[in-house]
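Supplementary notes for students who missed Thursday's class. We covered one full example, reproduced here. Read the sequence, then the structure, then the short commentary at the end.
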Amino acid sequence: MVKNPFVTIGKRRIGADYPPFVIAEIGINHEGSFKKAKKMVYDAYKAGAECVKFQCHIIEDEMAPAAKKTIPGNAKESIWDIMAR
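Structure (token representation):
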């Protein structure tokens, strides 16, 4: 039995005996802009992230119809419309 197992991604070992593997969450804040998404990836890299994770949403499968009328406090449109964009 291996005492402290690890996984390898490329040449990077990930496990209890290795430094944390930093994953940056990009989410939807790139607003669909490829240029902005690329800048966010670069900024995450500069901040020390080793990879990034993008979210992908299928609105109809994960949001209730009430979301079409729900406007977050920091927005001027519904959360449904924000996610759809």
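Commentary. Strands lie at 6-9, 12-15, 23-27, 51-54. The first helix runs from residue 34 to 46. If anything here is unclear, bring it to office hours.
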